[in-house]
Design brief:
- The structure is a single chain.
- This protein is an all-alpha fold.
- The chain has one domain.
- It is 76% helix and 0% strand.
- InterPro entries: LprI-like_N.
- It holds the Pfam family LprI.
- This is Lysozyme inhibitor LprI-like N-terminal domain-containing protein.
- Keywords: Signal.
């Protein structure tokens, strides 16, 4: 699941920005707070939690400096990192709570999901072949897919 960070970073680096040295795609404390507050208000409601997807991105986009293609990709990457953290924690909780046969299935499914997500989120790059919208749409795809998978994995982690 760490592949997501590398994937998102590669998108940002594709336009010549050295993201690794500037940490632009690292979530801020404000980003964390926006997501935590939204999820707390949603409680155990899956639909309410789904409504939280994009909240960090929207708050980030409110800054005029982030209203460029690069800014959109950075904002999406910051939120994706938060959901990836939730996904990793939920995956570990689900693995810890389940017997070996379920762990094997979960592990195999997660590997297939990562492969699917990566291929699925490459589609915008092909559609917009070389245009600036491709990386924006691809990072949005990563954000949405990761967030939905994190919420699904949290459901799996709650199953006794």
């Amino acid at each position: 699941m760490c592949r997501l960070s590398v994937f998102a970073t590669l998108f940002l680096m594709s336009c010549g920005l050295a993201v690794a040295s500037s940490n632009l795609n690292v979530p801020t404390p404000e980003d964390r707070n926006v997501l935590q507050v939204c999820l707390a208000e949603a409680g155990m409601s899956f639909a309410g939690s789904v409504a939280c997807i994009g909240k960090v991105f929207s708050a980030c986009q409110a800054n005029p400096e982030n209203q460029t293609s690069l800014g959109m990709r950075i904002c999406a990457s910051r939120e994706t990192e938060l959901w990836d953290e939730k996904l990793n924690a939920a995956y570990q909780s689900a693995m810890d709570a389940q017997p070996e046969p379920v762990q094997e299935q979960l592990r195999a499914t997660q590997r297939l999901w990562i492969e699917f997500r990566d291929h699925d989120c490459d589609v915008p790059m092909v559609i917009y072949e070389g245009g600036t919208l491709g990386p924006v749409a691809a990072t949005q795809c990563l954000l949405q897919a990761t967030a939905l998978r994190a919420l699904q994995m949290e459901d799996y982690a709650r199953v006794p």
